[in-house]
Amino acid sequence: MADWSMLPSDLLREIALKSNTIKDLIYFSAVCQSWNDVFSKVKPDWNTIKSLPWLLLAEPKPESLPWLLPKPKPKPEPKHKPEPKRKPKRKLKPKPYNDSTTQPKSGRRNILSMDENKCYKLMVPQTFGKQCWGSEHGWIVMFDADKKAELFNPITKSQLSLPSLQTLPSYPVTHDNYYYYDDDDDYYIDIDDDDYVYTIDSKKLFNMKELVSKATVLKIPNVDELVVMVIHYPQNNLAFARPGDKSWTPVLTSCTDRYLKVYYVMSWNERMVILYRDGSLAYCEIGTCKPETFTSLPKGMLREIVNKQQGDAYVVELGGDLLVVFRYRRYTIKYAPYEYHTTHFEVYKHVWNTTMSWEKVDDLGDFLLFIGHNFSTALHISMAPNCQRNAIYFVDDETYSWRMEYKQGRGHDTGMFDMASGQVIPFYQGRDKISKLFSPVWFTPKF
């Protein structure tokens, strides 16, 4: 009988690096001590390999939040009884936060493994009550209602501090902002739900839903240094910070024009690429402040989709090519109780020639895309054998209705778009993809 512990370390290293998922690599480490020793050495190299993302599903019901006060709905009084005189409505103040009573006791959150289409429960109480954005580098960006910011690795449980959102660069508020907020206001609003009337601190709600619209984790090449980019209030301004920084640094963008607002950020060819709201694209070195425009989408294409709330746009790299993915939604009461639904996608590839044109892509071949407002990635089907080739996997990241309507929640508009048939197919039916404050996000598990 073969002694697996005696295999050469070089061979074990090659086997470990062939692991497509973090679960396989963990199983590899559990075989014996010699395999575990190789696992410890190979982790940094495995982290540089693209792998299949996981889906962090919504946390338990949001009444676990200390600033979201649930109270049972009062029973309706009989019609024949005279209505008693009511006292003037007073402001309701949040109860003091008590970690032992407000967070779910288990501290677990469901994570969907895409290679198995199976949910696992992961102990991540650190994510409760926080807005999360995943990344392809294993880290999740977390912001809480008190503007605290940090990076969290759900696999290793490591945490890195980021500057408070209180230190974001300030800009003048103009009439065309998404939402006007006066920091001197102090009021609370009641929202009806099926089981409760929630009393919400409007300042906290603003911090969770409006202050930062998107967050992305990038990595500076060759130095293994993380940089977090945030698109933030009031005019989709862009700022960045490294773990340990004291404040956020602004990225100089032409925000004097109402349409030159940042819409998406990603990394490509070891540079940061910025998509502006008017359709222009710029790039610069990661962690620097002066991007240069290098191309633009066809005139009016992005503006037509975004300004009329008809969909979203994402930028992703596939085999060295730069792709822009347009997502189209339909808003109608047909999809009650939710008012919107993704109908289809269009993909365009940037062509490097004298005209810097864009070419429509109708077939992704043996590749598939995972898209989201935090990050998007392309993988070969060999790395995701149980997924659909020539398909786009997407999560619900709609913002317009979600910002304006607390009742609706989001997460329902999650699925897979088959490029060949043009059909949208749900890949997960669990109720824990729906949340009034926190929707599912992609993240790639890394050590």
Write structural notes for this entry.
With 447 residues, the chain is mostly beta strands. The protein has 2 domains: 4-42, Monooxygenase, CATH 1.20.1280; 50-78 and 90-443, Neuraminidase (6 Propeller). The chain has 7 helices and 28 strands. It has helices spanning 9-17, 22-29, 33-47, 99-102, 202-209, 301-307, 400-404, and strands spanning 54-56, 68-72, 108-113, 118-123, 131-133, 140-143, 149-152, 159-162, 188-192, 196-201, 212-220, 225-232, 237-241, 249-250, 262-268, 271-276, 280-285, 292-296, 311-318, 321-331, 340-350, 358-361, 367-371, 377-380, 391-394, 415-418, 424-425, 441-443. Strands 24-23-25-26-27 form a 5-stranded mixed beta sheet, with no helix packed on it. Strands 4-3-1-28 form a 4-stranded antiparallel beta sheet, with no helix packed on it. A 4-stranded antiparallel beta sheet has the order 5-6-7-8, with no helix packed on it. Helix 2 (22-29) runs antiparallel to helix 3. It is globular and about 65 Å long. It starts with 8 loop residues before the first helix and ends with a strand.
Brief overview:
The protein has 447 residues and is mainly beta.
Can you give keywords for this protein?
447 residues; mainly beta; Monooxygenase; Neuraminidase; 2 domains; five-stranded mixed beta sheet; four-stranded antiparallel beta sheet; 7 helices; F-box_dom; F-box domain-containing protein; KIB1-4_b-propeller
